[in-house]
Amino acid sequence: MLARFRARPAPDDPALLVRQAARRAVVQAREVRSTEREAARLAAQAAREAEVLAAEADAATERVRQAAEKADRQAALAAEQKAARDARFAARKARARR
Q: Which residues form a coiled coil (predicted)?
């Protein structure tokens, strides 16, 4: 057991330092990739949310347009009905004057 302890490399051993540096580089690269994945995920989520908001805005615009068209149709129908009613009233009045 003591032989195994003595066989361990010293903390300032160049090979050990190289391995530690390689491990640190791998860990840093892993952290960078993780950060990049998180940034990509957040960007994709923001893009999806922007698409949803744009779709909702388009739907709201369409609803407003349809409501305006419906109001125009109802106003035109009311004007036609009033004109027909006025024509009937005028015809009745003309018959009564004869």
A: 43-70
Q: What is each CA distance from 61 to 27, 54, 68, 74, 86, in whole angstroms?
A: 51, 10, 11, 20, 37
Length of the chain: 98
DSSP class of residue 8? S
pLDDT by residue (tens digit) across 21-61?
999 999 999 999 999 999 999 999 999 999 999 999 999 99
* Helix, strand or coil, per DSSP, at residue 82: helix
**Number of domains into which the chain is organized:** 1
Residue 15 structural domain: 1-97
Q: Residue 49 corresponds to which tokens in the numbers above?
A: 């949310």
Distances (CA, A) of 5 to 8, 13, 14, 25: 6, 15, 18, 27
